[in-house]
Amino acid sequence: MTPRACDQCKRDPAEWALQYISEGKPSFTLLGSHYRGWSIKARLCEKCKDAMQKGQMPQLPDEHDAINGTRYVLKEYP
Predict the structure, then answer these.
(1) How many independent structural domains does the chain possess?
(2) Alpha carbons within 13 A on the beta-carbon side of 18
């Protein structure tokens, strides 16, 4: 079975789950060790996770989106 591609770059395999566990603060956990019962907002590769934490990616989903379960692509690449 092929690993799922990163939701951000669509190239590298996804390793990290972006979840909102506490109010408005994103949590990054390894897929398979993510928090059950909390929705995964995006599945990310290592590079995209690091860039997102450093603020080099588009704005993260806000708490309202996290609560309502909105699912979307964080950034489109040409």
Answers:
(1) 1
(2) 31
Please give the Cα distance from 56 to 64 (Å, whole number): 22
Give the range of the structural domain holding residue 40, as residue numbers without chain letter: 16-68
Q: Is residue 11 part of a domain?
A: no
Q: What residues contact 24, with CB distance under 8 A and at least 6 apart? A: 62, 63
Note the pTM of the prediction, 2 decimals. 0.66
Q: Is residue 31 part of a domain?
A: yes
Q: How far is CA 75 from the centre of its chain?
A: 11
The band of 77, judged by pLDDT with boundaries at 50, 70 and 90, is very low
50-54 CB contacts, 8 Å cutoff, 24+ apart: 52/8, 52/18, 52/26, 53/28
